[in-house]
Structures
1.
Amino acid sequence: MKPVISAKDIEDLLAKGGDVKGLPEDAILTPSAKDLLRDLVRRGRADTFANSNGRATTPEAPAIPLSSQSPKSELDAFFNSVYCRNLKDQICDVGRRLWQRAYVDGNGGNIAIRVGEDIALCTPTLVSKGFMKPEDMCLVDFEGNQFCGARNRTSEILMHLQIMKRQPRAVATVHCHPPYSTGFAVAGMVPPTCMIPEYEVFASVGVAPYRTPGTPEMGKLVADLTDKHNTILMANHGVVSWSHNNVEDAYFKMEILEAYCRTILVTAQLGVPHKTMSPAQLQDLLKIKQSLGIPDPRHGLRECELCDNDEWRPGVTCTISPKVEPEVGIDPEVEAAVQAITDQIMAKLI
Ligand SMILES: [Zn+2]
């Protein structure tokens, strides 16, 4: 009797360090097993192996990090490696998700992954992000010079590269035009805070002023904000995010921001006062955020300063009013009176 192999059997095999090439040739594969195998082949992961913890791992990065100074033959070999193919697949996956969620329009949006000291893999120009193929990707240095790839790199790559130059922790960047978030970008306004935990923990949003897309000036204005923000609203344009983990994490910032902007607009239309979390509750979330290594300009602020939403028209305000602290300084009149009394006392003592 022919053995029947399910997706679970394949996952167990990979978890034990096995190779799918060792499956019996006459085995009957269930539909989900076929899907899983197809997916592994598509991702160039048919040779995926498992580490000692049983977790599947992807092909390893080059032992010696590459740079723009590496020989062209090494850059070509890297560009055609299984490791790089996996990264290209990740970019295609993220592009597809951006398009399916209507976060990009036309040929808009771009994605980049740092792959060496000063080189990055990125999306091509003039291709819909929903229909990219791994062979469409480009390899560039941090000045935007292209080394590998049949298509031309995106014209907006300079902004991604300036983020990576400014922020050594940035391993991936995503730029797109999600409508709700871009609405806030057009208004030039950071969304109000203290309403949803997911947003508070994973996103840290700033606004960069408008400049022509693709110019070094635009890139600099965005990069200047990345010390304190991982998601930047680009005025009259869209959003760019960066991650210190991976490209999917950079993409998640978009999902989180867009879902948040959409939710608070619904909330604003309900016609009842919004309920916000308390500053103490927000403080707890910021502690989690800090432990995850995610920047936020509110780290270290006093509780009463945490929920300042003055710009938000429907009127979300902090539940604690800032404490008015006495001014610390020197009052010249008081100082003069003290000096006069001191002088009188000193005169009697003499
Ligand atoms: Zn754009």
Note: The chain has eleven helices and twelve strands.
2.
Amino acid sequence: MKGLPAETDFVVIGAGVAGLRAAIELAAAGRVLVLAKKEIPNFKVADAKSEAAWLSDEEDVSLHLQDTLDSGDGLCNLAAVKMLLEEAPERIDELIAWGKHHETKLTFGLENAHSKGRVLHAQGDSAGKEIFKALCEKSQSLKHISIAPFTFTTAIVTEDGRVTGVSVLDEKGVPQEIACSAVLLATGGCGQLYRNTTNPETATADGVALAARAGAEVSDMEFVQFHPTALYMKKVPRFFLSEDLRAEGAYLRNFELDRFMGKYHPLGERAPHDLVVRAIAHEMEVSRAKDPFVYLDLTHMRASAVQKRFPRIYAALMAHNIDITEDVIPVRPAAHHCVGGVRTDLDGKTNVAGLYAAGEVAATGVHGANRLPSNALLEGLVFGARAGRAMREMDRTAPRTGSAPQAAYSNGPVDAGLEELIGQIQDLMWNEVGIVRTRMGMQKAVKALEDMAPKLAQPKTRRKHEAANLHLTSLLLAKSALAREESRGAHYRMDCPDHDDKKFLKHSTIKVGGTVRFV
Ligand SMILES: Cc1cc2nc3c(=O)[nH]c(=O)nc-3n(C[C@H](O)[C@H](O)[C@H](O)COP(=O)(O)OP(=O)(O)OC[C@H]3O[C@@H](n4cnc5c(N)ncnc54)[C@H](O)[C@@H]3O)c2cc1C
């Protein structure tokens, strides 16, 4: 697109599944500007998310409902789960129709914590890519939708408690304000809060921080899902090794090459996420290795079947000289999914008038205290569409005029001091607010984060905005985790290892400058 407009009807921040699905819904009601901080993938590049799986539109949703509730550990919002599953068939059917000409082959397989095969695969293991491709093509075919890549949102603008626009930095770092009637946040996850993550480098928790600064409540931030098996090799990205590998029979072995999952759960390698993660963390701790990890082992499986079922994983690891049919794979857990986020109702509405959120950045309570694998993409589709519909139907005031681009300042050279500060936040979160937490550790994290605040004031460059967003979101997360004095789902405290249903069978919620409440 040629330059950014000074005003539009709707701004959607994020061009992932949730943002694009919402934009498609909104296109019938006015001009939609979709912002993305980086490029929109061109599908020629193999990216980690292309390994993603998808859910079936099975007619009997009761088993899927039960699996979701079990994963959520008592905290799922039942109405949200029912809505997710009831609206899924329609969302999936329309998606398949939009991507019909792609000749996608769809098959169903079993994924961890699902009691029956309901995960849709396309052409080997690239279903995520096919889904995204269908959404991109559909949104690009609608004339009211414009997509602005490399446009970084720095603030949600409000007047008298109501959203009136967004502030952005364009590709060249030029600040501009875009006026609009309503904003949808669809900024994805927060994985970069942690030293080890499967998330892309863009997952710097911008959405949570933007919303919180605009006065929105955030909820359930303490529930961060760690993926058990990310590739662990020096100077290699934490490549995501799908749950499917264990679901199809891969073993976990410790440093001494012993299988260990049987000691922790009767389902062994197929146990729920959080249990597997903690079992691995424990095995790493007791190994006393200086640089501990465990192994994922497929060598007992038929080589041809492994190559056929996991062609992309096979090829990707071959590039690092690991033949998964013959070699064990070094792995470690990594931050994977932010269960909490900006608190919304089931139409994506936040407590700030004109501000909506959908997808991973939002907290509807649909995942409870832990997400069932594969429900995230479905969440983006279903709640993205719902938020789009709600925005379309809301009472709108005419957008006021936005500002012309202001004097440019550069995106800035790499600032070593800033990178060090980001590294400190990531280490603090990994060590003190990570897989296994304690009161003392989290108190230390909150204090250290509070002390850092002056160094992150008045950001000007994109990277400094990202650092400030990581910082604010870390603080909200650490305070929420400290306040939940029990263990539940993805939140595990060594000092309070059990549930406390009486006090904590509730959702945490916090605003900037406020204290955590349980509601
Ligand atoms: C490796 C990996 C594998 C996964 N596999 C599965 C799976 O098999 N099944 C499943 O259901 N889920 C899976 N997930 C989770 C799922 O992919 C995500 O939860 C989902 O894609 C999130 O979608 P979203 O639309 O909310 O955000 P995203 O797809 O993350 O999109 C976020 C968008 O927001 C933009 N953005 C962010 N900040 C700003 C800003 N400040 N200004 C402008 N734009 C901004 C980004 O550029 C991007 O366009 C996986 C996740 C990962 C990391």
Note: The radius of gyration is 22 Å.
3.
Amino acid sequence: MTDELLRYRPEFPILERTVYMISNSLGAMPRGVADSLRSYCETWATRGVRAWEEQWWDMSREVGDAIGVLMNAPSGSVSVHLNVTLCQAVVASCLDFSGRRNKIVYSDMNFPSVMYFWEAQQGRGARVHMVKTDDGIHVPTERLLDAIDEETLLVPVSHVVFRSSYIKDMKAIIEKAHRVGALVVLDAFQSLGNVPLDVQALNADFATGGVLKWLCGGPGTSYLYVRPDLARKLEPKITGWFAHANPFGFEIGATKYSEPPYRFMQGTTNVPGYYAALPGLKIIREAGVERIRAKSKKMTARLIELADQRGWKVNAPRDPEKRGGTVAIDMPNAYEVCQELLRRDVLVDFRPKAGVRFSPHFYNTMEEIDQAIQTVDEILSEIGVAAK
Ligand SMILES: Cc1ncc(COP(=O)(O)O)c(C=O)c1O
């Protein structure tokens, strides 16, 4: 059977030189990024300050929409920011922690930066309730749902867990939160571009993530979707002139909020980051997340099969419907193996409590999966030989 997605391989120069399986951390750079950044330089060099009016001001909306279309977000509902931690801060700045409803519920499988941020809000009146995992792979949905109660203000949770690639039941979480009057921030960093997401079908309140992993968009661009009916009611306190209804009026005094998406923004934007982000977003849209997901399931299944054959511990869900694009494998000497894989141009990473993370994407071949694991075999046998 031909693999249609492999026609995108030539778009990613690094694939000629490496086995690139680290899309959970930094997606491969599309060839088009060089041209796009050249065009940024050209625009700046030739149009100067006119670039803002001609192109750059509206690029925030353009990039937000290019991301939004991948999660079925309506046009104009996604604002762009520097990173996910800041997106959480924008959400927090819309909330009031002074009442009884001030509980923030999440699991200890969240990305640490998100936890650091919410923990720090305790000094501002938030109460953090952290639900713990037993197996390091997931938190039982029921346990999370039980913690969401009438005093819960917000549930910031990962759609796909960075450590284990477990896919959370976002439908159940959002339904429970809404039943008791709480809001949910869905962190789609490890899903969007690899696992289908429909924010409207889920009735998500907020969705955030960045483009540098599965969206191949490089560092510096993250996104915040806000449900349109909710967005118009919220008044972020982290704000600035980009969020003003009349930014070029330079009015004195309190702000007058604009409509979304600019309503959730602050000051001058990361324009080169936008230029870097657009080529990858275009490729992912064209390749299609459904097709990417189908291939991803096959590749992760093969990784698990090969790890099982060798008796290595797999820290990823066995059920393909519950598993995102990463398989963490805790083989013997996992940290050293990871370092050696990098030296041999098999690009992966290591995480404590997880092992070596293999994250193939639509541009990888099935042969590369086998090649990566064979390289581990070689390393382990060499380590074994050296130890004797
Ligand atoms: C699920 C998840 N959330 C958040 C982040 C990082 O957020 P930030 O953009 O603040 O660096 C990561 C990065 O690895 C992640 O995997």
Note: The radius of gyration is 22 Å.
4.
Amino acid sequence: MSRLEKHLADGATGNADWQARKEAAFSRAQSNMAPVYIERARNAEMWDIEGRRYIDFASGIAVCSTGHANPGVTAAVQAQLQRFSHTAFGITPYTSAVELAEKLNELAPGSTPKKTMLVTTGAEAVENSVKIARAHTRRRGVIAFYGGFHGRTLLAMGLTGKVTPYKNMFGPFPGEIYHAPFPVGYHGISTQDSLDALDKLFKADIAPADVAAIIVEPVQGEGGFYPAPDEFLRALRQLCDAHGIVLIADEIQSGFARTGKFFACEYAGIEPDLMTVAKGVAGGFPLAAVVGKAAIMDAPLPGGLGGTYAGSPLGCAAALAVIDIIAGEKLLERANRIGVLFANRLSRMQAKFPAVIGDVRAKRGAMVAMELVKNGQADQPDPDLTRDLVNRAWQNGLILLSCGTRGNVIRFLPALTISDELAEEGIDIVEQCLATLLGPG
Ligand SMILES: Cc1ncc(COP(=O)(O)O)c(C=O)c1O
């Protein structure tokens, strides 16, 4: 019996039935953007249980960068599955995890010798990066940025600089977390403004000598797809060096070829002390890592880091395949070409709809965004139009994601293996949906 036949035998006939069952069975807090139940997905396309096709500009939130059901990833995971699925790396390890750690150490920017630790999710990687930084510095404070997103566990949430819907009603959060403004030129916050705010924070809230780590996304993801200016990342590097603070680059969304470099912090030419990696690293399998300078990574005591599923064999097999695919299919170059395609199309769209497309951000490979506003004004966000566009898009066969602290950014995260034709077809849908929503004139 096929999955679809089973769905039908269970009494459900389509997406609406399953959505009703889902709403009855799940906490309302675990909501879904589109009431669309996926039956099959290949590369940058998905099909739902009613046979409807979708172009995927979300890639499972920047995870399936090598495309859905990539044959190389699937074969590697199937081969691993035949051998064993789990032994617990902390009990009886396996060679694939060691090979993966060696590769991650090589790929991490900078010449300082690196070491790795593997976990399962991005939030876990973030939590562990803070633990490692605290063990290394024996200090307590952590500085993060407004608009940053670092995950949904309590420490990661505490670091996150976006309240709704993530933080409402969940406090108190762990202490000793401080937030500073992230530089966003489009909103009038310069690198100097952010550095001045850090200086004030050091005077008003916590001495730099008590700060264990500064955590920053080289391109803010959930916060609105704002690339950190190169000079800002370089200034943070200098600040951390001056005060013995651990600089953590959260590359969970921006890493693994998404931006046209292996890691987005390479644009600024900096070497972070620690880097968090997840999402695209394992092409759809749950795997995450902290990769960093060996001396810092070795600060916690033996046994101080780990977890039952940490570095799952299936995730390791997938990640080794993903690394080969990125090299073999030249996906760094491809990410940049996709970025150019989107940049051209979106700037033409902006010229057509100047009052609503306030900003197009397409200078970081295939991590592209447009910000929707009213009257062409950066300070007049249009979250309603953004939500309507996302909804209209899936109704017309395109999976789009929004983001931004004001809820007014459309982010584009296509698979790096998407064809130009499919990317163009998806952008056509965006344009048609926007034109329909805005109406004549
Ligand atoms: C930059 C960043 N950090 C951390 C996370 C959390 O990762 P996960 O959802 O795998 O816990 C995310 C997820 O969106 C992210 O984008």
Note: The two ends are 52 Å apart (CA to CA).
